[in-house]
Amino acid sequence: MLNVIRPARFALAMAISPIFEKGRKFIEDKFRVSSRTATALVVVFVNLIGTTSLMALGIGLASLLSGVPVWAGR
Fold it and tell me: Quick check: helix, strand or coil at residue 20?
């Protein structure tokens, strides 16, 4: 199954790599850190924000589809 979507994953990686490079360069220049440190910061930031966003989207969608509110009222 993974071999079927491998070309799409590769294309997506190639498409977003300039965005990561811009972010890495921005952090490197703004905070005057090494390229290695800037890369680590970008990876951590994107993973943290990406994971949190996807979890929130999934919880919101499950709440909407099930009709159960995320936050219980008093």
Answer: helix
- The reply to whether 29 falls in a domain is yes
Q: CA-CA distance, 59 to 68, in Å (whole number)? A: 10
In a domain, 11, yes or no: no
Report which of residues 40 and 3 the model is more confident about.
40
Q: Which domain holds residue 57?
A: 20-62
Query: How does pLDDT run across 47-66, given as a tens digit for each residue?
Result: 999 999 999 999 999 999 99
Q: What does the pLDDT average to over 23-39?
A: 96
Q: How many domains does the chain have?
A: 1
- Report the C-alpha dihedral over residues 31, 36, 37, 41, rounded to 10 degrees: 100
